[in-house]
Amino acid sequence: MSRRAYLYFVLTFLLGAVVGGASVYYYGWSTGHFRRPFNRQSFVQRVKKELNLSDTQVPQLERILDGSTSRFRDAQQQSDAQLNSIRQETRNQIRQILTPEQRQKFDELVRRWDERRKHFSR
Fold first, then answer.
1. Is 31 domain-assigned?
2. Of 23, 65, 68, 102, which sees the most CB atoms within 10 A?
3. Which has the closest alpha carbon to 83: 91, 73, 93?
4. Residue 98 has what pLDDT?
């Protein structure tokens, strides 16, 4: 093969690698696989170092985080309950316009959607 053919082959390979890498990154970011959960110890250490907190301020910071964590968890549970209620109401309204065969198919779709949501919420 000529040099030009090798060049085209290498460029095609590199372009495929770049597009593939970007696609994997986008998929991971959009599904939440690349987001780490909140690490409290790391946060406390970073804030302590960056702000030069005293030994008396660190326990105060931890108490503040305790309070906000429980409030955040409560808000999340309320939000989840509201979303589930809306989701169930919407599904029931959709079921009312469907024929019996369509309802069976719809129930199967709903089951798969719920499994997928449980899988990605972990």
1. no
2. 65
3. 91
4. 93
